[in-house]
Amino acid sequence: MVTRAVITATGSYLPEKVMSNVDLEKIVDTSDEWIVQRSGIRNRHIANDTETAGFMGTKACEKVLEMAGLTGADIDDIIVATTTADKTFPSVAVQIQNNISAPVGVAFDVQAVCSGFVYALGVADSMIQTGQLKRVLVVGTERMSSILNWEDRTTCVLFGDGAGAVLLEAQEGTGDKSDRGIHASVMKANGAYQDILYTDGGVSTTQLSGHIVMHGKEVFKKAVGYLSEVVEDVLVKCDLEQDDIDWLIPHQANIRIIETAAKKLGVSMDKVVVTLDNHGNTSAASIPLALDYANRSGKVKKNDVVLFEALGGGITWGAVVLRF
Length: 324
Ligand code: ACO
Prior knowledge:
The structure is a single chain. By secondary structure, this protein is an alpha/beta fold. It has 2 domains: about 1-175, Peroxisomal Thiolase, Chain A, domain 1, CATH 3.40.47; about 180-324, Peroxisomal Thiolase, Chain A, domain 1, CATH 3.40.47.10. It has 10 helices and 13 strands. The protein has helices at about 20-25, 30-40, 55-70, 90-100, 115-130, 155, 215-235, 255-265, 275-280, 285-295; strands at about 1-15, 20, 45, 75-80, 105-110, 135-145, 160-175, 180-190, 195-200, 210-215, 245-250, 305-310, 315-324. The chain has a 5-stranded mixed beta sheet, sandwiched between helices. A 4-stranded mixed beta sheet has the order 8-13-12-11, sandwiched between helices. It is globular. It binds acetyl coenzyme *A.
């Protein structure tokens, strides 16, 4: 018998305000055509003053609890992936813990930018397998609009706000491929490329969060290369083949990256969950948002094999394979 970390419920939250590419044409020198052609994005949700990372993360967790038929009192632990926390400290995780009235347990934030959710899942899985966690909320929540330079057309058209969350529960498995739950995860980082995607500020330098600076072409090249490698690694780790994958849920950064990665993996686009067109790049929130959409719309079904892949600032990247 082995312990498996199984996703048993999903939830998400998107701010009410939708900003279209046409709306952006009024802010910066851009066009709907350029944005759609280069990125695949048409709309993104933009938070109002009260829709902070903590607020949105809490709302996503409430949806998870509703789906699971549980209350905050049933939750042991909370791990949050975010780059845009409400405060430098305490963490968003403890805020959510308090907001949903969860009891004393493990609660902390993970910072790996767009790879944050994959990192958080990998950490949660390891802690579940060593018996440290039992029933944990894993959350990705981002208010990217707060760290955008709204005069920089090369970045401000690409990002959006939102939150997604899953309930990850320890369950007994047989140890074979038919088990529900996480089968393998891989997390990577290469700090040599920290200067191709970063914020031009921070607590211990400018005392401000700074704004996103991105060398898009460099990030694009790294994304295609590293993502192809990591999906191969993660499949080898759990002894599964490309043909075993029912759904690829990639980080939603750019449709061209998603299509290239899917092609290299030999997965047709009808097996890829794409929400980028309506969400933009929501960083650590993008995969759990896409998963919740796919779950609630009936695309991803119980027992389907799902592969998550992500790459973000750092450069960080990673992948997770699970049976839903
Ligand atoms: N509207 C119109 N024109 C624009 C815009 C815009 N919003 N932005 C840039 N341009 C112009 C440029 O100025 C350039 O003009 P020039 O040729 O006169 O100099 C031209 O369009 C082409 O610009 P490129 O940067 O070469 O465009 P590219 O095809 O590389 O697409 C993009 C840019 C979409 C950013 C792409 O490189 C990309 O997606 N990169 C990866 C981003 C990514 O994956 N991020 C994930 C991680 S995010 C995170 O971790 C926080």
